[in-house]
Amino acid sequence: MSVALLGKPCADKIFENVSKGLQGRNAALYTLGFDDPQWKQYVSSLSRNAEKCGVNVNAVFLRPDVSAQTLCNYVKEACAQTDAVGVLVEQPLPVVYREAYSFIDISLDVDCLNPLSIAALYGNKSGFRPATPSAVVRLLDFYGVELEGKHVVIIGRGGVGKPLALMMLNRNATVTVCHSKTVNLAEVCRSADVLVSACGVPSLVTNEFVTEKTVVVDVGLNFDKGKTCGDVSSDCTKCSAISPVPGGVGPVTRAILFENMLKAFQAK
Amino acid sequence: MSVALLGKPCADKIFENVSKGLQGRNAALYTLGFDDPQWKQYVSSLSRNAEKCGVNVNAVFLRPDVSAQTLCNYVKEACAQTDAVGVLVEQPLPVVYREAYSFIDISLDVDCLNPLSIAALYGNKSGFRPATPSAVVRLLDFYGVELEGKHVVIIGRGGVGKPLALMMLNRNATVTVCHSKTVNLAEVCRSADVLVSACGVPSLVTNEFVTEKTVVVDVGLNFDKGKTCGDVSSDCTKCSAISPVPGGVGPVTRAILFENMLKAFQAK
């Protein structure tokens, strides 16, 4: 039976520290996105965290016919606010709107959306790292999982897999990135000390993908028959440790976002 | 005995095409760097290629006491020239000068030095890719080495290894990045279909690192007892194919730089 890498204790510790630093400091998160249910739900979930940290949330929900210019202006306006400690823009955005990311001041770019923040991530220079891959690393650190010299296998080369690969390299792990075109996926995964799945395929990772020593982090967030589930099958029980979905990486991701806001505040 | 993946036939083909496109077109490469022997030698070697392609080279060699502001101004000036089809700035530069890369117009950034070009590489968006990793991919393509679904192992996570990892992912390879902290390096390398060494350690890669099926690309450029050599030991003969040093990736790298200049010219 594998150990559960629960996100809550890790997230609680981060939130406690953020609360101390931001309560009563007139700090605000600015969010900009369209008036669609998924983004609204995300902002609403962030608002609950924000309240506990003493962060105000200023959310703008745009009409679908808004121009790219208008969105860019909103972003610039948000960045100019004296109480701003973070500016979040919905992602992914349709191509025509993407220039908006470039207008996020990198000192407020708490989820690493501006191309200049991405270049800093790539170059291992100072700057904000995206919240989800940061949460994977933090969760592993919290549970004392060694990364240096270990073989980290990542399934997925998208918005989580790619930055995570770079971050794991910076932690001196040997990194393999797998994806839909990988041959012998299960076999490659079995060579991992740490296996991270971030591909959004429900129940992809089975016992065949792991050994008794594998530590598994499940970054999948899928909906199957009305239930939230990850990329890891429920019968994947052989591995030494595994992060559940929900309740694993998710809470830590939100905590990291607010920790980034604390850093933005402290750097002012 | 392994097949030699010679760079010359691949480079010749590229240069032929570049010559056709740039001869008599009043195209110029602008280079900016310090007055040090290595950079001067590189510029002089580029000048020989440039002459054959009909590209003028305008080289500025800076005094060591020049300010970052002055270098930035030179870069801006170079980008403003109507005949410019490429602007190259010495790399690596001391930290204080690095902002100069940001002033290279991305339409002339033929070696992918501007952070915005790097973000485009990361995001697999259109833009120039760095010449050396591009040359690795091109050399493999030239010799018909399949990449999709193959396991590409890269030794090195620096200025070649990192962009190459991203480019190989975009080519649907499964990618492993190894480095100085990798445990069981030879064993990991033996799992490769394609092994690329870009770490600058002479004779690191031996027969122990390969199988009879491995295709090896040697990106090392080392100097040992006055002789140029790569990262692959001369007694690594078991693999199916190998690119020599000198005469492998190097000539293709310079060809790719000029091909990028042709692209810059065509996009004007």
* Count of structural domains of chain A: 2
Note the overall shape of chain A: globular
- Assigned CATH class of the largest domain in chain A: Alpha Beta
Largest sheet of chain A: 6 strands, parallel
SSE blueprint and pairings:
The structure is a homodimer of 268-residue chains.
Chain A: E1 3-4, H1 7-22, E2 27-34, H2 37-53, E3 55-62, H3 68-80, E4 84-89, H4 115-122, H5 131-142, E5 151-155, H6 161-170, E6 174-178, H7 185-190, E7 194-197, E8 215-218, E9 222-224, E10 227-229, E11 241-242, H8 249-266
Parallel strand pairs in A: 1-11, 2-3, 2-4, 5-6, 5-7, 7-8, 8-11
Antiparallel strand pairs in A: 9-10
Helix pairs in contact in A: 1-8, 5-6, 5-8
What does this protein look like?
The structure is a homodimer of 268-residue chains. Chain A is of the alpha/beta class and 268 residues long. In chain A, α1 packs parallel to α8, α5 (131-142) packs across α6 and α5 (131-142) crosses α8 (249-266). The longest helix of chain A has 18 residues, at 249-266. The mean pLDDT of chain A is 97. Chain A is built from eight helices and eleven strands. Chain A folds into two domains: 25-107, Rossmann fold (3-Layer(aba) Sandwich), CATH 3.40.50; 130-249, NAD(P)-binding Rossmann-like Domain (Rossmann fold, 3-Layer(aba) Sandwich). β6 of chain A pairs antiparallel with β6 (174-178) of chain B.
